[in-house]
Structure formats: C-alpha cells, structure tokens
Amino acid sequence: MKIRKSTIIVHIIAWSVALIWILPFLGVLMAAIRPFPEILHGWWNFAEFNPSLKNFVEAWSHSSAPLGQGMLNSFLVAIPSTLIPMFVASLTGYGFARFSFPIRDYIFLTVVLIMALPQQMIAVPIFQIMTSLGLVNNYISLILVHSAWGLAWIILFMRNFFLRLPIEIEEAAKVDGASDFKIFYKIVLPMALPALASVAVLQFMWVWNDFFLALILIQSPDKLLATQRIPLMREVHHVDWSVLSAASILVMLVPILIYVLLQKYYIRGMIGWTVKG
After folding, report:
1. Which domains are assigned to the chain?
2. Is the CB of residue 203 less than 8 Å from the CB of residue 82?
3. pLDDT tens column, 129-175
4. Contacts of the segment 175-180: beta carbons below 8 A, 24+ positions apart
5. Global pTM?
6. Which residues contact 262 (CB under 8 A, 6 or more apart)?
7. Torsion of CA 58, 63, 68, 71, to 10 degrees
8. How far apart are CA 228 and CA 35, in angstroms?
9. Is the pLDDT confidence value at 227 over 90?
10. C-alpha distance from residue 234 to each of 211, 231, 244 (Å)
C-alpha cells in the first residue's frame, strides 16, 4: 500500500516532538539511578554506568521530608477530589444536556467563563474563607477547593458527551415508567464510563500535581503533600540532585500509571463527545 507523503511528514513531526519531550525526562532518570559523579560531565556520558535504586530509597524515607508519607497524604486529597466533582458534575452535565429550564444557557455560559479564572486571582479570598471556617491546615479545605475548581470543566465535558448519546434509549425507559434519576444511573452512567475515565485521569493528575493551593492551605510538616516535600529535600549547604530527581520520578509515576491503566477508556472518552458513534 502506497504511503502518502503527508502521512510520513506527520509521523516525522510527531516523533520529533515526542523526542524533544522525552529527552529532559531521560536526563532526570539518569540523575536518579546513577551516582552524581557519573553525570557531572553529562548524563549521556556512559564511560561509567552503575545504576541503583539507592536514591529512590533515600527519597522515600528522607530524614526531613519523607516522600512515602507525602504520597499517602496526596492520595487522601486526590481521590475524594476526583470522585466528588465527577459525581456532581455528571448530574449537572446531564441536566444541561437533557432538560430545559429558564436561563439555562446563561448559567452554562457562566460555568464556561469560570474556567478562565486563574487560581492566583482568588488565592487570598480562598485563604480568608478557609480561615474563617477553621479549615486551614485541613485536607477538607483542599478537597473542597479542588472539587469546586474541577466542576466547571467536568460539567462542560460531560454535557458535551451526554449530547452525543442516543436519546431513544432514555425515551424508551421513560415509557416503561423509569424515573429520570433511575435512567441516569442505570442507563446513562454505564454508557458514559469512557467519559468518566477521561475525567478521572485528568482531574486526578491536576490534583496530584498541585503545588500552589497546597502551599496556601497546608502548613504542618506531617500533613505536607508529595509535591510540597520535594523542595524541602534541599539542604541549606548542599543539594542532592540525584535524590531530588528520584523523588520527582516517584511523584510522576502515579498519574502515569493511572493513565496507562485507563488509557483505553480515556481515549474513547476524549473522542466520544466530538465524534458521533
């Protein structure tokens, strides 16, 4: 079969971009698995190559900022911060997709506009609100903020996905006497699993990688999240870049593994609301 020139060009560009993105990661990986003297003259220098997992062990049980505890804390925040907005936004998105009510379009436009609001703009009001509620240095504050922040884009995503689902099945269920909520959780949600997987991957990654909001709301050393602990591994008079590199890779591995596990559903969900099945 004859291959088009355009296809070859697209593949060359795609592989070039992938290579540009992966080169810095290879540098971090080499710094993490090799002794620091071996990479002083460049990580690509393999005159000596003695890989080990020593730096990962040191990062996991670091004396001042153990990453193991930090990753557990991050899970305590990321999991509910993913599940809560998924459930609420799915209900809301379904409502926008299937029901008509006054000023529906204006409310939806407001939801879309909220997505353009930068976190830095409302950092001070968030801190003041959480202080007045007594939730500073409490994971509940982070969960609430991340859940609220994720609602806007998840509502938009799920609403667009629900619009692409065939409405005939729902109408048949209504004829049989099923309530709107029963139709939603027994018929619509199972069909929306690919979209929910996409939402889960993206929301979890954003919450897991968050540093800014955690820096504002979490202060106790024992409650610090994984992203907050990596900078604390730098000592006053010495920076062990190998340990920092290993810690960065450990934190990075979690969202990558989740993406790999849900990749099949993630891709289907991402194209499901743009291509009609």
Report:
1. 1-52 (no CATH), 61-272 (1.10.3720.10)
2. yes
3. 999 999 999 999 999 999 999 998 999 889 888 888 888 888 888 88
4. none
5. 0.84
6. 197, 200, 201
7. -120
8. 25
9. yes
10. 17, 6, 8
